[in-house]
Amino acid sequence: MSLIQSILMGIVQGLSEFLPISSSAHLVFTSNFYKVFKDIPIAEQSTQEVFLDIMLHLGTLIAVLIFFRKDVWAICKALFIAVKTKNFTDRQAKLGLYIILGTIVTIILALPFEKVANHLVFHPALVGGLLIITGGTLFLSEYLSKIRAEKSKDLDWKKSLLIGLAQGVAVLPGFSRSGWTIATGLFCGLDRETSARYSFLLSIPIILGASMVYPFLKIELAEAMSYDWISIILGTLVSAIVGYLCIKYFMKFISKFSLNIFGWYCVIMGVFTCIFFNIFK
Fold first, then answer.
1. Could you tell me the end-to-end alpha-carbon distance of the chain, in angstroms, rounded to an integer?
2. Half-sphere exposure of 196 (CA within 13 A, CB side)
3. What are the pLDDT digits (tens) for 41-70?
4. Distances (CA, A) of 175 to 122, 134, 147, 171, 274
5. Residue 155 and residue 121: Cα distance in Å, rounded?
6. What does the pLDDT look like over 167-200, one tens digit per residue?
7. Looking at the chain, which terminus has fewer C-beta neighbours within 10 angstroms, N or C?
8. What distance lies between CA 212 and its chain's CA centroid?
9. Is 211 a residue whose pLDDT tops 90?
10. Is 190 helix (H, G, I), strand (E, B) or coil?
11. Segment 257-266, tens digit of pLDDT
12. Count of alpha carbons within 13 Å of 184, Cβ hemisphere only?
């Protein structure tokens, strides 16, 4: 792993985590493009490469925590008061419960797909195919959203359940987490801003959990000491900075424009990678 590779992957992660274009797919593409052009076989990832992926996600977690710091604080405070008073009628307390529900559903659904997701990392052409499906999902969500007369800002447990299921399916590289969760929100009648905001808040427990669990369970301390920590830390910082800017401008974009541009991007990128990686196997 080189410094340039980690910086490049940090930029890719920061841009693609919150845009509905699948950050995991783009990390797979970037890593494997790099290997193709460096004439390195597309083989199993080293633990250092996997750890870098996790740290890059941690960078985008820092970005979402900073951007939504007021929301996160309000939700945590409201939940604490609600538990203490046993009164969950507060809007922010309800939102906290919906995030917990969505997270539980995500974990239940994502765990059986873990081995498949790990396998897809070494088959970028298949990931490209899943990215095309994500593009179709974005097109469909925009179409159904336009024919729905009323848009809602109100979440409920059913919508949270469905969005959590969508996040669980998106553990597969190529199925965009933000894309599938925002699209599901639109399917459920939520407006774009509410769908995007809930999608970003829902990402916090999952990314935090993955960032804490994997290193402790999968990586030995002696092995971790041999990692290129300068590259890893720099890539994480780049991911956080780019991720923050991406959230800031995406929230402005989604309030005015449709997701179709991202749908076209997913289809075009998916077709290109399918062709490229079938040629350079």
1. 21
2. 23
3. 655 556 777 788 888 989 999 999 999 999
4. 16, 6, 25, 7, 15
5. 34
6. 999 999 999 999 999 999 999 989 888 999 999 9
7. C
8. 16
9. no
10. strand
11. 889 999 999 9
12. 25
Angstrom CA distances, 107 to 39, 103, 156, 176, 209, stand at 37, 6, 19, 16, 10
The amino acid sitting at 60 is: T
**What pTM does this model have?**
0.89
Q: What is the pLDDT of residues 3-20, one digit of tens each?
A: 888 898 899 899 988 899
SS3 of 227, please? coil
Sequence spans of domains, the chain:
3-279
Residues 6+ apart with CB under 8 A from 70: none
Q: What is residue 215's predicted lDDT score, i.e. its pLDDT?
A: 63
- How many of the other CB atoms lie within 10 Å of CB of 227? 17
The amino acid sitting at 130 is: L
What's the token pair of residue 271? 């077709």
Return the number of other C-beta atoms located less than 10 Å from residue 2's C-beta: 11
Helical H segments across the chain, by residue range: 3-16, 23-37, 47-67, 69-85, 91-120, 124-147, 157-169, 177-187, 192-218, 221-225, 229-254, 260-279
